[in-house]
Design goal:
The strands form 2 sheets. Strands 3, 4, 5, 6, 7, 8, 10 and 11 form an 8-stranded antiparallel β-sheet that branches. This protein has a 4-stranded antiparallel β-sheet with strand order 2-1-12-9. It has one domain. 17% of the residues are buried. With 193 residues, the chain is α+β, with helices and mostly antiparallel strands. The C terminus is likely disordered. The chain starts with 10 loop residues before the first helix and ends in an 8-residue tail after the last helix.
Length: 193
């Protein structure tokens, strides 16, 4: 016999734990995570992304083109990857009335702003003609769309799904893989509507 005295080998337990470990690694690899992606129409590649889970809030801030007041659109991400518009906040009553002249939706005055909160509009992607005031917020992350993409550019905000394992490889590695994948799979006509 080749065993040391006083030493036991937990061979059975080690053999049983390998399939569990392999199963967990496979589950992490195939478990998708939603990623918020911003693309512009010319490069057709992802320029910025952030992990996005169902229920996460995405906020778009910009200046109303007619009334020159700040306006916010607040979306949540749903389980299917769509964006659900939950609330719009306007810097003036006139800007709010522009969207709903009969005020049939619930309009609330909050100090210097007006809110329409009874919205449940769903869209798969958000298309924006960027001006200097456009900003997007996700959690504590923010991006100035005009500074990143250029004033007058057209930007599409989408949610893609990628395997969770990409984010365990490291953020920079994940960014390169996601950008490459989106560039290879981008379809023409994204900005036509």
């Amino acid at each position: 016999m080749n065993s040391s005295p006083g030493r036991t080998k937990p061979r059975g337990a080690a053999r049983r734990s390998w399939p569990i470990l392999i199963g967990l690694l496979c589950a992490c690899h195939f478990c998708p995570i939603g990623v918020l992606c911003l693309e512009n129409e010319w490069e057709r590649r992802v320029l910025w992304f952030q992990p996005l889970l169902p229920g996460d809030k995405v906020e778009l801030l910009y200046e109303h083109s007619m009334y020159r007041v700040l306006q916010r659109e607040i979306y949540t991400s749903d389980a299917t990857g769509d964006f659900v518009l939950r609330k719009m906040v306007f810097g003036s009553f006139a800007a709010a009335a522009y969207y709903d002249p009969e005020l049939s939706k619930k309009l609330i005055c909050q100090g210097d702003s007006w809110e329409i909160t009874s919205l449940r509009l769903t869209c798969h992607e958000l298309k924006i003609f960027v001006n200097q005031s456009h900003r997007i917020f996700l959690g504590n992350q923010a991006i100035n769309l005009a500074a990143e993409f250029g004033d007058g550019s057209r930007v599409c905000i989408k949610k893609y799904s990628y395997p969770q394992i990409l984010f365990t490889l490291g953020l920079e590695q994940a960014k390169r893989l996601v950008k490459t994948h989106s560039a290879l799979t981008a379809k023409g006509g994204t900005f036509d509507s």
